[in-house]
Design a protein that fits this description.
By secondary structure, the chain is mostly helical. 70% of the residues lie in helices and 0% in strands. The protein contains 10 helices and no strands.
Length: 227
């Protein structure tokens, strides 16, 4: 018998909305400005202004790292660049993936663990992007934290396959497919350096999951003691 009181959509963990709503709100504001519905004539340039204020700039990062003089602006750019996207389509794809992956991971991980994975992937993806030789393209958009959630998703599958005696390599099918698609897309339309931050975000999310997953810290302590 169907439950008529059940919600039409499966509810998302609040932490997922906490991550997604700022991205949605930013894009709505930028779209209203570009459509001339808010902010007057100056609003047409809001996206460019947001990119200038929030984008992660590799040259700036390397300069800051070399001088060891971290400012509020340089630290902000490490984690704030996912707020602004190049277009509404860019933002839509990111939000859809964030909601889908966040729901899956959020049903297994605690809220703070989900946030930790997303932040680690955001900062880690930017840092690796900035340290990659010859990288000059600025970094915007929420794909690195999304790939961090893919890393957590992969860890969950990896752990479950290990418990059931399955082939753990099967857990890496999603990231393998995405990398293959990225390679084919790059061959057809030109490679983008953004894959560096995406792959780094995945690695950060997967690695951190060993610690922040339920019981992960206890298992890590046992392994360290066993050594």
């Amino acid at each position: 018998m169907d439950d008529r009181n059940a919600p039409p959509l499966n509810p998302l963990p609040p932490v997922v909305w906490l991550m997604a709503l700022p991205l949605i709100a930013m894009e709505v504001v930028l779209q209203l400005g570009e459509a001339g519905l808010a902010g007057g004539r100056e609003a047409i340039g809001w996206r460019i202004d947001a990119i200038q204020r929030l984008a992660f700039v590799p040259d700036y990062f390397r300069q800051t790292l070399g001088q060891g003089m971290w400012t509020r602006d340089s630290l902000l750019r490490l984690v704030a660049y996912p707020l602004v996207h190049g277009s509404a389509m860019h933002a839509m794809f990111v939000v859809v993936m964030l909601l889908a992956l966040g729901k899956f991971v959020g049903e297994v991980f605690r809220p703070l663990a989900v946030l930790a994975v997303a932040l680690a992937a955001t900062a880690g993806g930017a840092a690796v992007h900035g340290l990659a030789p010859g990288t000059t393209a600025v970094l915007i958009g929420g794909y690195p934290p999304v790939f961090g959630l893919i890393g957590a998703f992969t860890y969950i599958l990896w752990a479950r396959l290990g418990q059931s005696g399955g082939n753990r390599l099967m857990a890496f099918r999603m990231i393998g497919f995405l990398l293959l698609a990225q390679t084919l897309f790059g061959a057809l339309f030109g490679a983008s350096p953004a894959w560096i931050s995406d792959l780094a975000g995945f690695g950060a999310g997967f690695a951190l999951s060993f610690v922040v997953s339920p019981g992960g810290l206890a298992r890590l302590r046992e392994r360290l003691r066993a050594r």
